[in-house]
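Here is one chain, start to finish.
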Amino acid sequence: MHILISGVDFNIGFLTSALIGASFTLCCTLAYYAGVRKKGGAMADSFTDYISNIYEITGDNEFAKNELLNIFYKSPPENINKQIKKTLNDFFLSQNNKKLWLCGHEGCTDQSCNSHEISENIFLKHISDANSDVFILKRDMAKNSVFYTQGSINKRNASNFPGYCSQHDSDLFSDIEDKVPVLNLHFVNKQCLRSLRRKRFDIESHLRIAKQFIGTIEDDLKGFEEIQAVIGHFQNKIEILQTELSNIKSIYNEVLHGIDEQRYIIKYKEVDVKKDGYCFAQVLASTLEADSPCFLFLYKIDFGSEPKAFICWLDNEKSFKAFNDAQDDYKHYFTLFMYLHKEKLIFSKEFLNKLPQTVKEILYRDSEFYNLDPIQNCIISKYFF
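Its structure:
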């Protein structure tokens, strides 16, 4: 998915739908190869087959196409639902195991701890309940994993990821962890440093997933045209991710050195928000042009009982121009990226209980299969801002 802000292409590179479709291509090719498909018989349609058939049948009729796709997504055949769950379990859900990751800060090779992009003890505690629980949106693995559902988790498990080692996590952020911080350049640059480390983890995870997926393909299958197309797609994805990772590491080091020298290279501006009871953080990066990277950071965090939303940008011309365009319609962009990255939303029980079911049903949809239209965007932003 490509999103333009001030002419900058923020490529939102998801792997979920690609992996689901590719997994079925592999399974069907393997079944054919193994002789499961008997002469004159028919093999069960795959995820990709269903989608292709709908596009072929409906042609240019967008209404009919969307209706049939919606029916398929809401009630996928059992074999397809099982394969989707298997793909998610095999490739995605295992990535958060901290034992698989190293700190990486300035070359540190100690094991990662569960770092938090949004501070557990400073921010998340203000939206947690008496049991220290908060609410998130997660894949509905019990029913239909194309959709999300709400669930409660302890605040220590919200917004966390395998990031720094314990020592570096403490050394880097203890100065903004002692009390509710002031929203200023120092805090913003420290917060963005955390988010860049989270972004690095996300990219490295996708790299592992893509390589792991290619590694599952047996040599006997690589002669099939369909499999060669799948391999080519993921090899191209790997090249893009490797370039993005290198540039993310470079910007991370620049932000770190700027903090050390009090020469802050991330700027920010606060925007208006009235609703408290939820948190969100997301990095928007366009890094394929290494000599002219563009970085925006979107944050909605409750500072105690005071909700704050702010947009941060890398101090260069391209990022500043993107920021100017984003702030002019900030509710739209915040809402869009909350929808695209709904797994990074963290709610209080009270906030989630106040959301109408119609809003929840929009948020429960997978953004890779359902676009957010302008009316839906306005509906959601009404309750979030």
